Amino acid sequence: MSTIEVDAPARHAHDRGGARAFADRWPFRRKLNLLVGVPLAVIAGLLAYLFTDLVRQSSSASAAARLVRDSAQVARLMDRVEAEHQQAILLSTRYESGDARPSTSAYRAAQHAVDSQVAEVRAAFGDRLPQREAQALRGVEGLTSLRTSVEQSYLPADNIDPAYAGAAQGLIDGLGLDRNADLAETFTGNLLDSLLRADAAHGAFETNVFAATTGDTNALIEFTSAVGAYDLYTHQAERFGRFATEAQAERLSGIEHTRAQRKIADAYAELQVDVGRLQTDDQAQLRRAVREALADYPAYPEQAAARLEITTALIGQIADRADAAADSARWRAGLLLSGSLLAFALWIAFAVLVRRSVVRPVQALTGAAREVAEVAGRELARVADDDTEDDGPPRLRDMPVTARDEIGDLAEAFNRVQTTAAALLERQVLSRRNTAEMFGNVGRRVSNLSTRQLALIDAVERGETDPALLERLYSIDHIAVRLRRNADSLMLLAGIRETVLDAGPTALSTVVRAALGQIEGYRRVRLYAASDVLVEPDVIGDLTLMTAELLENAVSFSPEGSPVEVTVRSSAEGTHVVITDHGLGMSAERLAEENARLIRRERLDLVPTKVLGLFVVGALARRWEIGVELTRTPGGGVTAEVTLPASLLVTPSAGAPAVTAPAPVIEATGPAPAPARAKTPDPAHEKTPADGTTSDQPARAEHGAPLPRRIPRRA
């Protein structure tokens, strides 16, 4: 076979100058890095910065909205504390007016309301409760000693006011609204802080006015505190108006225009008219002042409820404003993300268009390389020990050279390599086909010659009556049978399959005896047939060859004095032929390797082995789906177990006689036949029993016994 070498024409590069020549000399990897890597890095950095900032803004706005909504519970707690403050002032005034056992139920109900609201605040904030706010809540719960003192006896108002005022002030300070970074950007912190402080100041003003109207010894102090609380409320309301909308400021001023507030304002105005009569030591006047204060007291809870309603409504509006800021931040993040992704997609599209001039030649080279790899893979698969015919020589397409840079040089070199590889593959295919054909022809010739030789020996045996000469003819006959077996193995390895169907179903033990007649050390073999079955006619020849190869290995690789046992038995898994020798055996690694060779397909020229028969056994086992497994023999040696599937066996019908085919088989006989029989050998009387059974004693050939007799093939 001749190989045509295709050389690409020489390419002469055009002289170019300037920036274009400089860019053409760049490797394509640098071009890709410049066109794709740098823009991607810049865009990725910009997107990361934008995403981080927008996500932070959205998260801060969401956290601010949650804090504002949770602060409504703090406003309710301050209202409950102020209500308890008023009840404490009222209870202490009753003690001062001479009431020895005033009722404490209202005071204790106010305490219970405060404690319940403390639990509500903790539940609303959860694990987001600020540390200072938690400390303020503990301060509210620490009013227990003051509560006990108020319940037991009279306590001056100037001792009661600081505790409750400090508790309310601590609740506002604990939120840290003016120092919260999440609230600072939208002025939400100052807005909410001024609202809560205005609410607390007005509540303190109401309580101080009520305490001053009771006429106790500290009424003047309470009036002074009321004036200061009202000034503080006015300041915080003005501060709230600077950050709030006009509608929100007007809504807060509604605290001063309720019906209850008008009553409280009238009482405050009366106190301003005559400050000198605020306090008295006369018990009768004190009790009268207490009764008048109690008559006006319903206005104070009503005003507190109205004030709390206005405060919580404004807190809800502030929370809605924070939610709107969070939504706005999310929308901005979405818009910026969409715009960035759109710009990124456009840039990627542009980069793809630029890169195609570089990537497409590489992809074409990759496709051509894959085609070469697929062709080489098919050739490697064909190397397996199978029966497929070799296809024609592979045809590979040339790689078009479309670039003038390093990729163009690579394409030209690849075309030359591809042409050479195709020529090598073609030569390999032809060489393998010729080698297989040569071995097949040699095997066929040897098989034909041995068949003719056996026919001549049969003719001589029929006319010979001398026992000594007849025994020599039997030895020559046995050697010719072994020679034909080797020729059959050679044709099998060469991929030639010949099936001769001139026989009917045959007993498995007869097949084993036929295989026994094709080996040299048949005298050491002992056959045990625990059960027997009939084998399909088309598998008899291959099964005989397989069994002969396994027997040959068992005899060859075991000591001369050791026996080789062959057992034929049946089980639920199928019919088994077990061949056991007692030689040196194989290592575990070698056994695993040989068992794998019996399953997978390998070529003898690529995976040589000293045990040539196992290649034949593996090929036949795969052809007929027969299970063959090699294991260690206890005490040393190898045991080969052949498992025949049910598809290769014949099940005789009920009442039908067993069929014994007139196939050319070898029969392992017992002791030497009588001279009279030896003088007149009759093939018709030398066949195996028709029922295919054997005795339970081992059928063996003692030393000096005649060779296994081959029944000649009948015309």
TrEMBL record:
Regions of compositional bias (Basic and acidic residues) in chain numbering: 679-689
EC assignment: 2.7.13.3
Keyword list, A-Z: Kinase, Membrane, Phosphoprotein, Transferase, Transmembrane, Transmembrane helix, Two-component regulatory system
Pfam families given in the database record: HAMP, HATPase_c
Cellular compartments annotated: Membrane
Domain Histidine kinase: 543-648
SUPFAM superfamilies: ATPase domain of HSP90 chaperone/DNA topoisomerase II/histidine kinase (SSF55874)
The HAMP domain, residue ranges: 356-426
Residue stretches spanning the membrane: 32-51, 331-354
Catalytic activity: ATP + protein L-histidine = ADP + protein N-phospho-L-histidine
UniProt-listed InterPro entries: HAMP_dom (IPR003660), HATPase_C_sf (IPR036890), HATPase_dom (IPR003594), His_kinase_dom (IPR005467), TCS_sensor_his_kinase (IPR050428)
Region (Disordered): 666-715
Record protein name field: histidine kinase
Species assigned in the record: Streptomyces tricolor
Lineage: Bacteria, Bacillati, Actinomycetota, Actinomycetes, Kitasatosporales
